[in-house]
Amino acid sequence: MEFRSPEFKTRAVHALHDANLQKALSNTKAGFVVKRAQAAAEMPEFEALRDTAAEIKDHVLNNLDHYLEKYEAAVTAAGGHVHFATDAEDARRIILGICKKANAKRITKGKSMVSEEMSLNEALIGEGYEVVETDLGEYIIQLADEPPSHIIAPAIHKTKDQVADLFAAAHNKPRKTDRAALVAEAREVLREKYFTAEVGITGGNFLVAETGSSVIVTNEGNGDLTQTLAKVHIVTSGIERVIPSLDDLSVFLRILARSATGQETESYTTFSTGPRRDGDIDGPEEYHVVLLDNGRSKMLGSRFQDMLRCIRCGACMNHCPVYGSIGGHAYGWVYPGPMGSVLTPLIKGMDGTYDLPNACTLNGRCKSVCPVRIPLPDLLREIRHNQFRQDMTPKRQKQALKLWRYVAERPKLYHFAERIGVRILASMANGKGKLRSLPFDPGWTGARDLPAPTGRTFLELWQAKRGDK
Questions:
Q1: Which residues form the 4Fe-4S ferredoxin-type domain (predicted)?
Q2: pLDDT per residue as tens digits for the range 450-469
Q3: At 384, is the secondary structure helix, strand, or coil?
Q4: Can you tell me the distance from the alpha carbon of 157 to that of 110, in angstroms, rounded to the nearest whole number?
C-alpha cells in the first residue's frame, strides 16, 4: 500500500463531509464498543488475562532472539521453511521467488495486514500473477481498488448499497441488496478460485515456538481453504507475533475476539504446522513462513517496545473518537487509529507523519481497552516530544506553546486570561449554547458546532459548589 500520510488533514476534512462514510461509520460505532464491554463484563477474569497477556508478550520481546530460533527449528523439523525479511522489499523478493519456483499463475490470499505493509499485492500483480483476496472485506475493497480502512473490518467504510453496486459491476449479475444474497454471491465467485490457485498466502495471528505452528483466527473460514487447497502455503507475519507455547496461546485467544468484535471466540481458529504429511487428505506440498522485521527490531529495548505487544485486535480504533469521525483512509497507510499513529512514524519515519500523533486528543480510551495494556497515549506523547526535539514543530505552534507556557506558569495571569476568554466565547454564542465558528482557528468548527462555555470558568464553578470565597 502506498504511503500517503502527508495529506492527513486534507483527507480528514474530506472524510468529515463524506455522507456515505459517515453513514457507514455511524452503523458500526455502537456495535464494537457495546459488544466489547458486554463480553468483558461477562468474564470475571478478563482483567487478569490482560495482565497475563502483557506479561507473556514482555517476556517474549525481552527474549525474542531465543523464541525466533526455537520457532524456526520447530518449523524446519515439521518440514517447513522460515525466511527472515529485513524490510518490505526483501519480503517481496522472497515471496516472488517462491511463487516463481511454484510456476504459479493464480494466488489466493487470506487476510494479512503484514502483506499490506509490504505492498505485496502490487508486487505480485506487477509480475503478472492473478491475486484474489478471499476475506469478504478484503475482496470488497479489492473490487473497489481501495486499501483497507480497519485492521479487522477492512470494508467498514462501505455501505451495503455501495457493496451491491460493486458486485453488480464485477460479477455481471443482477444487483442484490440482501446481505445474505451478497455473501452467497461472493462465495460462489470465490469457490472456483480456491481450487485453481497454485499458491495460498495467509497471515499469522500467532506463531507458536513450541510446535512451529502458525495460527489464524477468522469468522469466514476462507483462510482454511486458502492454506489447504493450494500446493504452496506462505505465511506472512511480523517477527513480534511469536509466543512460547500452546498454553500461552489460550490466554490470547480468550481476549482477542472479545476485544475485537465482542465475541466469546472466533468462528475458526486454525493451526498450520508444516506441509502435508503422509496420510493427510489435504494440505500444501510446501510450507513457508516469511517473518518481517521492517523496523521492529529497532523498537526493541526502546521507549516504544510496548508497541510490539500489539495483537492487532482493533479495539483502540473502535473506541477512538478521531477514528470514529474520519475512518481509516485518512491515516494514509496500513495501520490507522491510535496504533497506526504510533507505528506509522516508527516504521515509515518522522518525515511526512507529523500530523498523525498530533491528531490524537490523548483521551486515553485506547489505553483503557487495549487487551495487552499498551500505553498508547504515552507513546503518542513521546513521539510528539521527539518531533519537538528534532525541530519539526511548525513555527506558529512553537510560538503558541511558548505563550501558553508563559501564561500557565503565572497563575494570576492564567486565571485572568481564562475568565476573559470564557466570557468572550460565551457572548459569541448569543445564548444558543454553541459556537458555529471560532476566530483564528476555524478548524475546530469546520465540521461541527462547538459547545460554548456558560460564562464562568471551571475554577469559578468549583468554588461556587464548595462555597469558597
A1: 301-331
A2: 888 888 888 888 888 887 65
A3: helix
A4: 20
Cα diameter, the chain: 86
How far is the C-alpha of 204 from the C-alpha of 14, rounded, in Å? 34
For strands 268-272 and 213-218, give the pairing.
antiparallel
In angstroms, how far is CA 135 from the centroid of its own chain? 16
Model confidence pLDDT, tens digit, residues 32-45: 999 999 999 999 99
The three grid cell numbers given for residue 149, joined into one nine-digit string: 480502512
- 458: which 3 cell numbers? 471551571
Whole-model pTM: value is 0.90
Asked if 236 contacts 225 with a C-beta cutoff of 8 angstroms, the reply is no
Count Cβ atoms below 10 Å from residue 410 Cβ, excluding itself. 12
Is 107 within 8 Å of 76 (Cβ atoms)? no
- Cβ atoms 57, 307 nearer than 8 A: no
Domain boundaries along the sequence of the chain: 5-297, 399-466
Q: Tell me how far apart the alpha carbons of residues 324 and 32 are, in angstroms, rounded to a whole number.
A: 11
Rounded to the nearest 10°, the torsion over CA 226, 230, 233, 238 is -30
Integer angstrom CA distances of residue 427 from 224, 240, 310: 63, 54, 47
- Could you tell me if 207 and 213 are in contact, meaning their C-beta atoms sit under 8 angstroms apart? yes
CA 131 – CA 121 distance, rounded (Å): 7
